[in-house]
Amino acid sequence: MNTNNTQIRKNVAELFRLVEQASKPDRCILCGKKDASICYSHIVPQFILKGIAEKGMVCYGQSLFDKTSDFIQTRKGVKNAFTFRLICRDCDKKQFSNYENPDAILNFETLPNDKKNSVLIEMALKTHLAHIYSKVKSLKFREAVYHEELQKIHNLGLPTAFETDIQEHFQYVNSLKKSRKSTSFTFDVFYNELLNYEVGIATQTIIAYQYDLNGNRLFDPKDFATTDLVKYFYLMILPHNGKTRVMFYIERKHQNFVKPIVEQFNALTQEEKLHFLFISLIVYDEQFYINPIL
Are 123 and 60 contacting, i.e. CB atoms less than 8 angstroms apart? Predict the structure, then answer.
């Protein structure tokens, strides 16, 4: 590696350090405690990541496609892989305990309905928190690099796309927190299988489909005029101990808004469904982790 590339790496690393520092909140997003001990929380549980790691390392999905991986570190140790800093240690330990254990992943079908609902809520909640952190970091990065351009937008009284996304994810967080107190089941689950093999990919993410399987538009991500929430599907791929839990679900109150793609998905064979979910992950998201050998 030449001297110029080495300096670019150092500059990028320093910029990301400052961005991360600026992204840390002064209070816990979940409990609201000010000056709480904000921790590094994993999106995907560590026991899942350890299973797909090679010598303790995993790669971010973007490393498959993104040329910026020449300058941005896309290989991480399990301890630091896709963590976010928005919640305190107490919330991290207590509010996700239902799903962050192998038994909940491997034996989900045997859980009572209220426990199943809690597991699905916790996975969805942590996913939105992770996306908030990602959007906040992206916003802080742009504020550092494109300060004058963003200031012009703010002077017009207009929010940036990232600010709109952040507000929307906060709405989901608040809605899911309320769902914990409800006695009704929160979600419709379209795919839930424990595959009899362990894949080298793990994710816990959300997907907003712009088109159905026939190419008809479901929503326009550039349309900021609408006040409706984007209707997110949740996709979980969690390999562990020779098995892989794959889940695909949505909040029940949103299903009618995405009915075409739900009906099309339900009409697929099991093999086609898995293929569709994998392609969805590649097309719509890069927040997944892979074994470095892949």
Answer: no
Q: In this structure, what token pair is assigned to residue 12?
A: 């990028």
Condensed to tens digits (0 to 9), the pLDDT of residues 147-162 reads 666 566 566 555 667 7
Confidence of residue 71 (pLDDT cuts 50, 70, 90): very low
List C-alpha distances in Å: 165 to 60, 129, 194, 246, 268. 22, 12, 32, 26, 31
> Which stretch of DSSP H or E encloses residue 286?
none
SS3 content of the chain, % helix, strand, coil (to 5): 50, 20, 35
Among the listed residues 27, 42, 50, the one whose alpha carbon sits nearest the alpha carbon of residue 92: 42
Residues found in the chain:
294
Task: Give the integer Cα–Cα distance in Å for 186 and 152.
Answer: 41
Structure tokens at 108: 């989900």
For residues 65 and 182, give the distance between their C-alpha atoms in angstroms, rounded to a whole number.
42
CA 60/CA 209 separation, integer angstroms? 22
pLDDT at 230: 87
- With pLDDT > 90 as the criterion, what percentage of the chain qualifies? 52
- Residue 65, pLDDT > 80, answer no
C-beta atoms surrounding 182 within 10 Å: 10
SS3 169: helix
